[in-house]
Write the structure tokens for this entry.
Amino acid sequence: MSDQYFDVVVVGCGPAGATAARFASQRGASVCVMDQRQEIGNPVQCAEVIPKDLPEGIGIKVSRKWVASEPTELCMVPPDGAAVHMGKELSRQVCGYVINREIFDQELAGLAASASATIMLKTTARSLLRRRGAVCGVRASSFAKPVDIYGDVVIGADGFASQMGRWAGLVPPLSASEVNICFQYTLANSGCDASVVEAHLGCEIAPGGYVWVVPKGGDVANVGISVAMDRRTGRTPKDLLDRFISLSKRFNGARPVREAAGAQVHAPPPAALSADGLMICGSAGRLSDPLTGAGIHMAAMSGMFAGKIAARSVECGDFSNSTLAEYQGLVLRECASDIGNGSKLRELLAKMDDPPCGARGHRSMRQDGTGWPPSSCCVMPWHAKDEKRIR
Ligand SMILES: Cc1cc2nc3c(=O)[nH]c(=O)nc-3n(C[C@H](O)[C@H](O)[C@H](O)COP(=O)(O)OP(=O)(O)OC[C@H]3O[C@@H](n4cnc5c(N)ncnc54)[C@H](O)[C@@H]3O)c2cc1C
């Protein structure tokens, strides 16, 4: 296969890469976005929750095609079983939409294509190409054939296990304490409250992580678990999730229609997200909430910034880090407070022990170390009859 030339080359067509490709294309750059998958968004490895303000933030219309449900409440369930409702406004901000992720990712890719980006499926970046030290493309294999794809600006949006950032020396290797291993069932006949997203905390339930219950509408729910890699016991995340499900009566008739495994990064972003000719965005740049692992919002927003800056650097013919570094400022302004708060809470969670059985008034986690949870705590309907089982 002969070499290919574009202004901007994007590696990875998840929310970050697709959004970067769309914004760079819309601003007149010729763009190629590649993905190693043969189908964008598949397999789904996601609880599929996005905040209410994301569509507007990246300039897309909310579509019935990808909205599965609109929960109205987020509810944290600490180890003592007494649920804490987070309030309607906060709930909407954090978990405004439950989406069909595959369709959502394909819509983002479709919008990039409509803006004239070239999408290359089954195309895997293998290494960076450099000219006088600056990144100027990637060596890839496309449908198993080698190809060099050149671009004045390269955007690494290759997700959690990103190689792009490592090849460029920007992103250090992850330690076990920075990774959570996840497992999720999509359950039919789930018996879950269609309006409530639940997060269950506790060392017994999910060491260093949590169990989520996310209603997808029509009695379908994503029920998943994340467990800190360095706090794993003899039981796998799947074992722990099976136990959680088997101990709650409401799941008695539930049956899995989809399984997914994956990993979430809970590490802070690296010191630099750009170099000469290169920007790193989304999970590849460790842009996700260090507490929950949620990262679609930061991925898409960082993709938008990367796409805009890439197009501008093409326009002015300057691909050096002095131009691209503005990207980092925009990203940190958007994400720094969420990342900072999430980190603090994760540290607290790491130190947290479960309360002794029956310690009903015990509160194990406080948002700022003093005054959390709020006084509006109440008991979820199933706790009265099911409390010991949930614990
Ligand atoms: C179990 C689980 C549940 C989650 N739930 C939520 C949630 O409810 N809400 C939320 O906001 N976040 C959630 N997340 C996190 C969220 O999925 C990520 O933050 C988000 O996908 C990051 O988007 P991205 O575009 O950066 O990377 P990705 O979506 O991972 O996309 C990266 C793309 O790059 C491609 N790629 C990788 N390497 C190469 C290569 N060398 N060449 C070509 N292509 C390559 C991949 O195939 C992939 O398509 C969850 C994660 C997991 C694991």
